[in-house]
């Protein structure tokens, strides 16, 4: 992989040209270029991570000039990088229209049979802001600005891979935005991320997280690849969920859980229920019992995540004792699997939307 990062100049020339990555590479025509030229271009971008026309040395200079005039290659510019090489790194990207989004790169050491391997997970954004308006979340505070385009979604992975200088193993769509509210741009992005000619990341290594858009979960069940699905549950009954997630008025628990059943039935695949723990809101033991019973009904895994404080919002993480009792109570319900995830990157505002919020206030 070579080190060619976008220059600011290339970005802020008026974004009048189209972004090349918005078109899936298998649909490129580019003025009827011969296939081998299109293949050379794909190779530069997807295999080598090159975002500079001038470095594409096996393309004739006149062709590069022509493409440069018609197409924007660079989807976004790195505005700020927080964190260090071997820990969680958070990217704040500036898009071509000046909006900000974030991606977070999280290293983890995993192992089995005595072999330890370091794996990289990238947390990807799908929208600028979010319209869902969960009350605990920094991403939704300013509402939705716009959907990300296909190229802006794929671009996050390509540019983060350049930054990491190595392969990215897992993707989680848990950055800013509601992925299922942007399926028309997201699905072509997934096609390219999954394709061996694109980023070549296996479907099992890709997780979409949703606040529970029941009809879209049913729609996603038809997508051919075996991607993973995580549901942001955050409440065991309607009353509790509604306190922090207004979307529950539109798609109450019953409707959400039956959409999940449909997805599981169609895909023959386990899903995950995510549950953030917020002090005095959803951390009482009755909720733990309900959570375990929903997981049993769906044969789903549970991921408990202590709340990550957002500046300016009233919500707090429960005490460690309360977190442990909640965890224990869930385990007593004997769901298929429970994990307690102590958030990595807690100290660098790793929860979604927090860094962008700081940039906007600065
Ligand atoms: N919109 C999607 C995906 C993005 S949010 C969704 O809601 O699922 C990804 C996850 O981060 C969700 O489970 C969300 O509830 C959680 N989250 C948001 N703000 C958080 C915070 N401050 N602390 C911990 N988790 C948070
Ligand atoms: Fe949007 Fe997800 Fe944040 Fe809710 S938790 S506001 S759906 S990004």
Quick recap:
The protein is 34% helix and 21% strand.
Features:
about 350 residues, alpha/beta, 10-stranded mixed β-sheet, about 35% helix, binds S-adenosyl-L-homocysteine, binds iron/sulfur cluster
Distance between the termini: 34 Å
Ligand species: S-adenosyl-L-homocysteine, iron/sulfur cluster
Strand content: 15-25%
What is the tally of helical segments?
A: 12
Shape: elongated
Strand order of the largest sheet: 3-4-5-6-9-10-11-12-13-14
Compute the number of strand runs: 14
Q: Which stretches are low in confidence, meaning pLDDT under 50 for 5 or more residues running? A: 345-350
Compute the average pLDDT: 90
Order of helices and strands: HEHHEEEEEEEHEHEHEHHHEHEHEH
Radius of gyration computed on alpha carbons? 21 Å
Q: Main sheet? A: 10 strands, mixed
Q: Helical proportion?
A: 25-40%
Q: What structural class is derived from the secondary structure elements?
A: alpha/beta
Layout of SSEs?
Elements (H helix, E strand, L loop, with lengths): L7 H5 L5 E2 L15 H13 L13 H10 E2 L3 E7 L6 E7 L4 E13 L2 E9 L3 E3 L14 E4 L2 H15 L5 E4 L9 H12 L11 E5 L3 H7 L7 E5 L5 H7 L2 H4 L2 H15 L4 E6 L7 H14 L2 E6 L13 H13 L4 E4 L13 H8 L1
Parallel strand pairs: 1-2, 6-9, 9-10, 10-11, 11-12, 12-13, 13-14
Antiparallel strand pairs: 3-4, 4-5, 5-6, 7-8
Helix pairs in contact: 4-5, 6-9, 10-11
Bound molecules: S-adenosyl-L-homocysteine and iron/sulfur cluster.
S-adenosyl-L-homocysteine (SAH) binds next to strand 10 and strand 12.
């Amino acid at each position: 992989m070579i080190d060619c990062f976008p220059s600011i100049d290339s970005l802020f020339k008026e974004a009048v040209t189209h972004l090349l990555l918005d078109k899936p590479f298998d649909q490129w025509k580019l003025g009827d270029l011969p296939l081998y030229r299109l293949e050379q271009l794909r190779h530069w971008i997807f295999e080598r991570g090159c975002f500079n026309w001038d470095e594409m040395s096996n393309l004739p200079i006149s062709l590069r000039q022509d493409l440069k005039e018609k197409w924007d290659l660079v989807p976004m510019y790195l505005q700020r990088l927080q964190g260090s090489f071997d820990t969680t790194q958070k990217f704040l990207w500036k898009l071509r229209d000046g909006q900000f989004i974030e991606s977070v790169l999280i290293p983890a050491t995993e192992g089995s049979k005595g072999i330890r391997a370091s794996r990289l997970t990238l947390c990807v954004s799908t929208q600028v802001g979010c319209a869902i308006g969960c009350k605990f979340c920094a991403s939704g505070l300013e509402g939705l600005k716009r959907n990300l385009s296909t190229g802006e979604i794929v671009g996050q992975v390509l540019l983060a891979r350049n930054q990491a200088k190595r392969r990215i193993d897992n993707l989680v769509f848990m950055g800013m935005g509601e992925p299922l509210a942007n399926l028309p741009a997201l699905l072509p992005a997934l096609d390219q991320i999954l394709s061996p000619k694109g980023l070549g990341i296996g479907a099992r290594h890709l997780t979409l997280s949703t606040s529970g858009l029941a009809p879209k979960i049913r729609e996603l069940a038809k997508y051919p690849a075996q991607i993973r699905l995580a549901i942001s549950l955050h409440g065991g009954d309607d009353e509790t969920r509604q306190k922090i997630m207004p979307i529950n008025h539109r798609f109450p628990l019953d409707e959400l859980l039956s959409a999940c059943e449909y997805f599981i039935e169609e895909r023959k695949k386990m899903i995950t229920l995510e549950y953030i723990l917020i002090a005095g809101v959803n951390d009482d033991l009755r909720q733990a019992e309900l959570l375990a019973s929903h997981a049993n009904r769906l044969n789903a895994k549970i991921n408990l995540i202590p709340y990550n404080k957002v500046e300016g919002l009233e919500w707090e993480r429960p005490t460690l004792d309360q977190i442990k009792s909640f965890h224990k109570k869930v385990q007593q319900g004997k769901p298929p699997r429970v994990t307690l995830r102590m958030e990595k990157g807690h100290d660098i505002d790793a929860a979604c939307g927090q860094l962008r919020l700081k940039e906007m206030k600065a």
